[in-house]
Amino acid sequence: MYQVVPGGAGGTITDVIPKQKHTKDTRSLVGAGVIGLILVIAAVTAWCYYIASLRKAELLKTQLLDLNKDGYIIRNQGGSIVFKMDFRSGTLDLDSCSKEEEVLSCDRTTDRKLKFFIITVRPKDPVQCYRVRWEELVPDIPVEHAMTYEFGHWYGGAVTANQHWPISISGQQSPKPFVTNDIYSNRNEFGGILESYWLSSNATAIKINNSVPFHLGWNDTEKTMYFQARYNDSSFKPNPGEAPVAELSYRVCVGSDVTSIHKYMVRRYFNKPYKVPAVDMFRHPIWSTWALHKNDIDQQKLLMYAANISKYNFNCSHLELDDRYTRHYGDYEFDPIKFPNASAMFSKLESYRFLVSLWIHPFVNYESENFHTCVEKGFFVREPTGRLPALVRWWNGIGGILDFTNPEARDWFASQLRSLRTKYGVSSFKFDAGETNYLPWKFSTKTPIRDPSFFTRRYTEMAIPYNDRAELRSGYQSQNISCFFRPIDRDSVWGYELGLKSLIPTVLTISILGYQFILPDMIGGNGYLNHTSGIRALPDRELYIRWLELSAFMPSMQFSIPPWEYDNEVVEIAQKYTALHESIVAPRVLELASEVLHTGDPIVRPLWWIATSDETAYKIDSQFLIGDDLMVAPVLEPGKQERDIYLPAGHWRSYKGERFNIEKPLHLTDYPVDLDEIAYFVWVK
């Protein structure tokens, strides 16, 4: 039997495959395969990154808003960009961003942690709102966003010395505190009536939250407005015990048209008056002694002023006794030399049916006996340590400024006003000043305030008991004080810098900020010697007449320099327009005033209010509406007895009886308007 033994005589038996030699063609095929594999991997990787980028892009979109690392844009329903905001205080790390339902949030920039979110709010169709908040976590780092303003015409913000409508931005300004100022003395600052609210012709609005230490700047080259929050090198202060950590928060809302978006913003974010002031404030003019007599007023002059009002057959809401009726500023008793028998004077004026209001202010000069009382009782705003009262300089001297965050100081001030009312029958008060520039740069108050303009708010509250006939020139979140607000003193000039041409843009701006009971200051301006168009303190005659005509179509009229200072023709023109105001303007204004309590809608309206689709209407600053049905076009140029008029589409009747039934806007070129005329048009059905 045979056995097969593996290996044989000297080794192992195996199956052997002959080794073959590779050719060049074989190596080429292998290389191509490797390259192909690499390309496939690269393509798959690119596709994955593309899908991831699409998902990230979708993540960073919320409704009509697109977020990127440097800012965001908002589109309208038609897809057009209507709002653009850039981040100037950091670059977002998009990998730190997440989205949960309507909240898009990020927690890092490229170099630090932060809290950032955008929340989409759907209040009602077609309004779309976004809440934006950027909060730093480290003290003393400012937050700055830059809004591009080239996508539309913008309105709102603050009154200014050189007022335009829409807002005209020129030059560059680093962000500065957005607080109330006396712009007669500080003409490059923000004015005494302001709100952190802006409205665009492309139906976009932005409202900065009241909690923000808000600073505003701009650059006309970049077409940007800088919205900044900071505490360092600022009059804003964090709440006691809080670190100076900046937070910029605001809401941006987009609507279908500018009128509807403004109505939504006013109803949601503004205070509203709770009552309408006295009817006579709307019907009859106020007569102030200021521009005529300045601080040289006395008992005899006041009685003569009242006698002339009666002599020339003018009506009078009330007389306004303005400035230096006391011995010292800060006294609350009549100067016995200038007013030897104040009680008899008030009795005589009352017998002639004249009501009297008094000029008042928040200052107590050091020479007043009340100064020592206020120091001892701690009634003044103090220097930063809180140990000593702060002395301030104002236009009538040096003294302390009452701390209206202090309940005891408020009670003391209120008691002085009540005493004047009780003793003399004073009807109300003209509350002057109240702006933050009269506070020290660094100050302390009884109740700490983080926003200096909150001092303005506290001061305006002192007018509430007298708001039937009270007058204020400063306001911040003060729409519900429910009294008349007036812009700062006007100069007796024609131009835009506190002159006649500034009046309509200023009144429209105040209206957009939610203040609807507007007193447009004194007819003809204040007659200051260095700021008149005439050769003496008396304003130029033509300027006075044109100012008078315009004022007749405002919610209230105010004389100081009386028409009889000129001639009989001016007196007759004044009588004509005070009668027209009472018969035509006041009834319509009073109807609208009652609506303001519920809607907050302007009484004095821009032309775009009823012509939202017409680009021309957004730029007109020399015409305005009372409601939707009375359009006014005054002459505002010297030597002119004609003007161009823009007439919105509709059915109009001119003051001359002409009828215009037009389906699209009409431009009336060189429309004749005599010196004793003002062009106005009434909507007819």
Automatic annotation (TrEMBL):
The chain crosses the membrane at residues 29-52. InterPro entries: Alpha-glycosidase_related, GH, Glyco_hydro_31_C, Glyco_hydro_31_TIM, Glyco_hydro_b. It holds the Pfam family Glyco_hydro_31_2nd. The keyword Nucleotidyltransferase does not apply. Gene3D superfamilies: Glycosidases, Golgi alpha-mannosidase II. One of its GO terms (molecular function) is hydrolase activity, hydrolyzing O-glycosyl compounds. Belongs to the glycosyl hydrolase 31 family. This is Glycoside hydrolase family 31 N-terminal domain-containing protein.
